[in-house]
Request: fold
Amino acid sequence: MTDTQWGTCKQPGCGNRVNMRLDDYCWEHDYTSQYE
Reply:
């Protein structure tokens, strides 16, 4: 993923590559919301 994709999630704690699990969940949640 790119930095832009990681930054799509506007929720706190997201976008931190160290927190792979949290980021993956946030990114998927944000992605799903956009294409719901």
User: Anything to note?
Assistant: DSSP finds two helices and no strands in the chain. The mean pLDDT is 52. Helices lie at 3-6, 20-34.
